[in-house]
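Late entry, evening session. Most of the bench is empty. Finally got around to the prediction I had been postponing all week. Sequence below, unchanged from the version circulated by S.P.
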Amino acid sequence: MSTFQAPKGTYDLLPPDSAAFLAVREAIAAPARRAGYGYVETPGFEHVELFARGVGESTDIVTKEMYAFSTKGGTELALRPEGTASVLRAALQANLHKAGNLPVKLWYSGSYYRYERPQAGRYRHFSQVGAEAIGAEDPALDAELIILAVDAYRSLGLRDFRLLLNSLGDKECRPAYRAALQEFLRGLDLDDDTRKRIEINPLRVLDDKREAVQRQLAGAPLIIDHLCEACKEYHEQVRDLLTAAGVTYEDDPRLVRGLDYYTRTTFEFVHDALGSQSAVGGGGRYDGLSEMIGGPSLPSVGWALGVDRTVLALKAEGVELALPAATDVYAVPLGEQARRALFALVTELRRAGIAADFAFGGKGIKNAMKSADRSGARLAIVAGERDLAEGVVQLKDLASGEQGPVTLAEVAETVKERLV
């Protein structure tokens, strides 16, 4: 046993389970790629101030959950707790918004880090796939991103997820709602830290998951009742576009999510089979974030979907992903001459696009065939000196046990035909 173990709240991705994670990442990214989103990759750490400004200094993410550290040169950095601020920073730094083709559409995949109490579905290191559309204010863009996420989930076979939808208003109507909410919250029985949030960002109190707080919020004013006419019209257009696309949603007037940069459209995907950690993904519009981090006005919208929780949701529904076989053909050489010949044949098969493996380590025929069975291969290629002298190998179907000779020149073509 190794002396070291993975840190608390983290996990290792290992075969065969890792194949499901890769399939989920690919399925989530595929609709975005088809919609013109290009891949972006940002560093695993950024300046602390980027997240303090963008995510919000009063959020749990910044005040309690962010892994921050000082470099030897005194620079304050943090492991990225979410992806949007980093992606927008990268787009601004590269002046992508000046290329004249807005919105800038980007998708990404990576690991993120938050210091949280570990439990099923919540880790200190987790994986997400995200998509951002930067530089355009259009209800159709909000609807597009939501539809892409829905299509990704459906492509995986996930069915029992729900889409929650809300609008958080904008700089025109939010101030009046903020004042009304603050007046309500000041009359509640709350601890000192929560009372401080009332003055900094009262919407954070609505996102408090503690039952003692939630009970007192039953009569809290709702943002939907304070929207200006422009925000009402915008929200209705998003809803109409989703309905026309066959997307079912639930209006949730209390949905605010945990980040300060959201404006107008806000949404979350939940799966009730996951218990308290029911959110599998979410996002929204963040029209003021660019200015918060020192950029120009760039209205934008995006989402991030959790790979870890999507995998858990698939398991909860009993969905078996159609994963490609890690190995289709397993080569078993008998003798040194056969070892060289079959190694060359395995290389040829791989170059022809066939997943092939080899009995390494000089195993005897019995152990080699056990390895062939454990590999999941459908076919085994077995050859000894006598076979090679006759210019053939033995092709064995590992399911039926049927075996027969195939000439060396015809192996690749025959294998392709048998694997169809």
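Two things to note before I forget:
Residues 115 and 321 are 31 Å apart (CA to CA).
DSSP finds 16 helices and 16 strands in the chain.
Will write this up properly tomorrow.
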